[in-house]
Each structure stands twice: as structure tokens, then as C-alpha cells.
Amino acid sequence: MFTVDPARIDVFTFRQLFQEGRDLLERDHYSAAARSLRAALSLWTGPPMANVNCGPVLSSYAVDLQEQRRAAQHLRIQAELQAGSHRELIGELRALVGVEPCEEAMHGQLMRVLSLSGRRSDALATYRKLRTVLNEELGVEPCEELQRLHHELLSAGDATR
């Protein structure tokens, strides 16, 4: 019988650290959550099963792992944002929205960090760009949460006049 210690398999360690980070974030331990999620993401060296000839079952598993990675990345950014590291996130988020031009959650995070960094006009431009892409590519408007954030940013400008 072949047995392997789960601690020696990256995917198990990733999932454990991801869950730990999620739990810490729910308890408002932002810096600790960010550390756990960074540790989880550090296990990634590329796409899952990149060098494996996958059939349909393994392919769907690889897609699931990629989605878990994306969720961990989103939560890590959220934790770092809550911990006050907004300026440090701007470059990373700009790169991520460049790769995923229809990813509304990442655009929302970018808008928040830009606004918190005193770059309201850049945050508004980010929304306009996303709105254009969503309209042209998918024929839809940004989600309600982003529309509210956009309105808040516009209102903040009205309040300073």
C-alpha cells in the first residue's frame, strides 16, 4: 500500500493555509490572514498539472485548483487592503486587471486602493475602462457593488467642491 503524508503534498498544504487565511480574515486578523494567504500562494510555481497529459477528469480538477488560487489571491489582496497596505497593491492589481479585463472583483479592489491612495481620478478611469470592456465584450453593465463604488467616488468629488 502506498501512503503519503498530506503535509508533503502542496495542494493539501495550500488548502490548509487558504482555509486558515480565510478564517483569520473572517475574525478581522488582517495581517495574519495576509501572511497565511501569501504562504499558500507561494506554493504555486505555475499552472496546475502543466506537464501532465490530462483527460477530462484531471482537466476539470486543474480548473478547480486555478479557481481556488484566484480566490486565495483575491482574499490576500482584501486582507492586505484591510491591513492598510493599499499603496503597495496598485501595481499588482493593475497587472491582474490587465490579464483579466472582465474580472469585476479585481477592478473593484483596484478602484479602492487608488481611491485610498488619493488617486480618485485613476479610480474613476478604471471604472470607465471596465464598463467599456463589459459593454463591448459582453453587453452588460458592471455589477451593483461597482456601480455603488463608482457613485461614492463621484459623490466624494462633489463634496469637495
Automatic annotation (TrEMBL):
<feature type="domain" description="Bacterial transcriptional activator">
    <location>
        <begin position="9"/>
        <end position="154"/>
    </location>
</feature>
<protein>
    <submittedName>
        <fullName>Transcriptional activator domain-containing protein</fullName>
    </submittedName>
</protein>
<dbReference type="InterPro" id="IPR005158">
    <property type="entry name" value="BTAD"/>
</dbReference>
<dbReference type="InterPro" id="IPR051677">
    <property type="entry name" value="AfsR-DnrI-RedD_regulator"/>
</dbReference>
<keyword id="KW-0805">Transcription regulation</keyword>
<dbReference type="InterPro" id="IPR011990">
    <property type="entry name" value="TPR-like_helical_dom_sf"/>
</dbReference>
<dbReference type="GO" id="GO:0006355">
    <property type="term" value="P:regulation of DNA-templated transcription"/>
</dbReference>
<dbReference type="GO" id="GO:0003677">
    <property type="term" value="F:DNA binding"/>
</dbReference>
<keyword id="KW-0804">Transcription</keyword>
<dbReference type="Pfam" id="PF03704">
    <property type="entry name" value="BTAD"/>
</dbReference>
